[in-house]
Amino acid sequence: MPEPEGAQRRRLLPLLGGVHGGRSAMTCKYRCADACFHPVPNESDNEYFGDMVNKAMSRRGLLRSGAVAALVVGSGVGSGALAAAAAPASTRSSGPKPPTPNFPDVPERGRPVGFRSIGDNTLDTIVVPNGYDWSVTVAWGDPILPGAPEFDFDHQSEAAQLKQFGYNCDFVAILPLDRNFTKALLWVNHEYTNEELMFRGWTDAAAATVEQLKIAQAAHGGSVVEIERVGESGEWLPVGGRRRYNRRIHTNTEFTVTGPAAGSDLLKTSADRTGTKILGMLNNCAGGTTPWGTILTAEENFNQYFGASAAVTDAAVAERYRRYGIRTTAGTDRGWEKTNKRFDVAQEPNEPNRFGWIIEVDPYDPTSTPRKHTALGRMKHEGATVSIAEDGRVVAYMGDDERFDYVYKFVSKNKYRTGDSKRDRDSNMRLLEEGDLYVAKFTGDSPAGEIDGTGKLPADGAFDGTGQWIPLVVGGQSKVQGMTVQEVLTFTRLAGDKVGATKMDRPEDVERNPVTGTVVIALTNNTARNAARGVEEPNPRLNNKWGHVIGLDEAGNDPAALTFTWKILVLAGDPSDPSTYYDGYDKTQVSHMSCPDNVAFDPAGRLWISTDGMPGPSGIHDGLFVMPVEGPDKGHVRRFASVPKGAECSGPFITPDGRTATIAVQHPGEDDDASPDNPFSTFPYGDQPRPSVVTVWRKSPTGGPFIGD
Ligand code: FEO
Ligand code: CA
Ligand code: CA
């Protein structure tokens, strides 16, 4: 049998590198437009479905909503083969549900992890535990579409990039294409670009060529890549030959708009007088999958692409720009205003309002138009993950990744249809177009003043309490004084300010455990939480450089409930530091984890957490960690993988058969002094660093048992 492509690539890996000290300023500039150096913008006072799910439910006794969310798969039926009569073009599905994959039995819930943790390290490669292996599935520049040239670092072009895999990979999902789960669709977000690392001799946007700017625009967005499993292992590689589903979405792809703000005056521009057609998606960070087999992808730090908002003098409009971090001065670090006036707020004041949404993509139909769903609000969306409520409505949990911003959820008006027909899928495809939007208020149960900011446990032994979902839009009516529905949805942060939502330490992924029903919220860090800002039980540490994780349990374990209880699961960081807490587990036994960002669950309900920013406060590389959430090993955090120099660990996605952990190696080689002539990382092929998607699997003749066992 020929050596798999991944194995060949692994042999080319570079020699191991040295230590990276603090966080790169380059990271801040290009990912979040130096948000961490800017004033905090929140200054307010305040069988794949029915059969598989049924099987999973009866076999594991899973919660209804959880099973649906965890085992999400999609329609593998040919694109556009069946025309929908009733639904508008933008919501037609590609067909009925595909067949159910034959997954092996899942491990028992609460099962302990069975691998030996890897140590803290600063190696310029992927490190996984003994007994596991990994390979690069796809990397920046790999040809995706017909006619794409091979990657040529020194001769890159917009035309090539439009057909090649994009830059910084973040959210990853794998959606099965067949019953045996041998073929699948890989979805990947391309959040942003590192021009300093992409172009030799780059100085800044002002000196950039238009071609360079267009290459960067083409490298943003997302990719669909048809992949296949290598034998019986958990390794996945791109298919050869015909790739009917492959797709690139980029800055000039057309999107349509759904929901109450579609067509609003707030979204109209000179190029789109309907307020319903938008070119591109920007800074797509995390995301989720839906039970009907689509991808949700979240526009996060979209503000950095726009400048010159000071030209708009209306005070109310200026406040909206300020709250969303739109730069007042002309020009941006991206420089895209040089290619298109829509990035210049002075010329197109509403263009920024057309970004910051949750987007739904049907990966099974490469001709489908992606949809921006205004019913889910506009913010620096980290991601969105879907559960199904007791009554069949669908619920999307969402975080707004900014210091002192909020946690939200959307509850659909209509109910999920469990059938397999094309009609059922068409109906489900419209669930995120209409519904109610809420923001979270957390209340601690300790007396005022008891929380001292050091992380010391309160007298009742836990950072915990109750909470409520405060309505913003319900039944198509605004619940926010002085704001219309369209204003609430387009300027959702301002709505959250008005109703007294709880200011959190940067809400990242929010995802419901398919086995236990607990909603996990990753709060990555917040060093701006100082004495003047104060602490409270849900955000209990001053100068929160390491971040924390909250578990939220909805009343009655129903995602549509309006009240909840919560507790802190992890106060992350060096376990020897007294301010840390790992769900009560013996801290001498846990791995050092900090800056929790993305979360995922395996089929046993264990929590997987990837980190972003550990080199700064912790001096070690980011990585992927796993933590059982019940049983005697609850809180036993172990480090499963680490990523190369300068990289953030994104992704993670545990395949529903439990055999593969997928990691996105985002911005390898990011460093203040790095350039193509002085690369800080040479991952993965020993020359220029290339953002990559990596699959990790357990070495075993049969491909089992599960990742983490
Ligand atoms: Fe793009 Fe909130 O991380
Ligand atoms: Ca308490
Ligand atoms: Ca993230």
Query: DSSP strand (E) fraction?
Result: 25-35%
Shape: globular
Kindly report how far apart the N and C termini lie: 28 Å
Name every ligand kind in the structure: MU-OXO-diiron, calcium ion
Helix content: 10-25%
Global structural class: alpha+beta
Radius of gyration: 23 Å
DSSP E strands, number = 32
Instruction: Describe the main β-sheet briefly.
Output: 11 strands, antiparallel
**Mean pLDDT, rounded to whole units?**
88
pLDDT < 50 runs, ≥5 residues: 1-23, 47-89
Q: Short summary of the structure?
A:
The chain has a domain at 1-38. Strands 13, 14, 16, 17, 18, 19, 21, 22, 23, 24 and 25 form an 11-stranded antiparallel β-sheet that branches. Strands 8-7-12-11-10-9 form a 6-stranded mixed β-sheet, with no helix packed on it.
